[in-house]
Design brief:
Length: 140
């Protein structure tokens, strides 16, 4: 069974230098398999960092080729996004955003849309019916 829960580990929380950072750890049984770090930014929560503990990076620098993510890996990313969205929603926020451009290619697959220097996901899309992932196959 996969769970995603916040940690109170001050070393993990302090590495981002942002007040009220939440570091959500994804586990399968007792094994850590990923995380997402988020922090409040104005009226939203910003994704600061995220990772699956796999040999493929989630960040994609422009002009660089990376191994494609399979459907299982995309499903795990969706779980992290939903956990982050749930956390933000419980703090009375209606969206998630990201400004780290190296995540843009990945997060566009999950209905994040451009808004100025950010990509934004409105939580009504995230918690509506069906998957927020627009593609089950990574073609990049």
């Amino acid at each position: 069974m996969i769970t995603v829960k916040p940690t109170d580990n001050s070393d993990l929380l302090g590495q981002y230098g942002r007040e009220n950072t939440a570091y959500l750890i994804m586990r399968e049984e007792d094994k850590e398999i990923g995380f997402v770090a988020i922090a409040p930014y104005k009226s939203t929560y910003e994704i600061l960092d995220m990772s699956l503990f796999i040999d493929k990076p989630l960040k994609r620098e422009e002009g660089k080729d990376y191994a494609p993510l399979n459907a299982n890996e995309l499903g795990l990313i969706e779980i992290l996004i939903r956990a982050a969205g749930s956390y933000a929603f419980n703090k009375d926020c209606w969206s998630l955003c990201v400004r780290d451009k190296s995540y843009f290619d990945l997060l566009k697959k999950f209905e994040f849309t451009a808004s100025g220097e950010f990509l934004v996901l409105y939580l009504n899309k995230l918690f509506g019916s069906g998957c927020c992932c627009s593609s089950k196959k990574d073609t990049n």
